[in-house]
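Marked as duplicate of an earlier ticket. Keeping the data here for the record.
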Amino acid sequence: MGLPGELLRSAEEFCRDELYSSMIYRALAEIEKDPHRRKLLEKIAEQEYEHYLFWRKLLGRDCSVGRPRVGLMAAGYRLLGPAFTLRLLERGERETIRKYREMLLHLPGAERAKLEEIIRDEKEHERRLLEELEDARIKYLGYVALGLADAIVEITGVHTGFLGATSNTIVAGVAGLVVGFSAAMSMAGAAYIQAKHSKEENPPVSAIVTGISYILSVVLLALPYFLTKSMLLSFTASILVGITLTGAFTYYSTVIQEKPFTRELAESTALLLGTAAASYAFGELLGTILGIKGIIE
């Protein structure tokens, strides 16, 4: 059957998306170690390929795709875990289902029946995958958040306080590292104690995850102060690092927890900037009252 121009473009988009999905699920199946999950991914890959064949037939020609996206999703599966990667894929599938429902109105009987079957397949994919999303990373996500969020707020506060007290970037950077290392040990100990009261988390792993996420954040936040002698430039770069870390983790957690990304990021950024403003005012006050600037310029 011939499709009008707009529907033809939609069919070509769907054709590419389904081919991409088939390739991605196939690639994930190849690196999945769990036999049950691997078999599920292989089955979904086959179904997505059938969907691609449907759109190719409807389109009247083939559609081609590149492989970079497939490699990125496979790398994400290894690094960020199946829970994040599969939820990210299914987030796209939901939008696809919405578009498919709109397309139903423009198709005749046989094609409409086939597309309805495809929609049912896509819904089943989501249900089956969500049942298979056990991932150790999710179990310790709260401890990563504990270390990351506390480090960003606390160390940004330390650096901002020195912005008002001194123009010596090395002093500010070292202060952040010293405070950060001590705080990381304290947070790791608190995480260990918290995990002891839980039956699901391993206390040593919880402490290590919290401590490492804290220390890594501290190092990244302090690094700009050792790369330039400009306090304003160091501070700006450090703030941008903090916002970037916050944004990356917020995106990861909102995908897994299915929360709105924009609102969560806005709240986290507002907390970070509010802490910075309050710390600057306090540091400026101390610098003026105690004459600290004159001592450590």
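See parent ticket for discussion. The CA atoms of residues 161 and 282 lie 6 Å apart.
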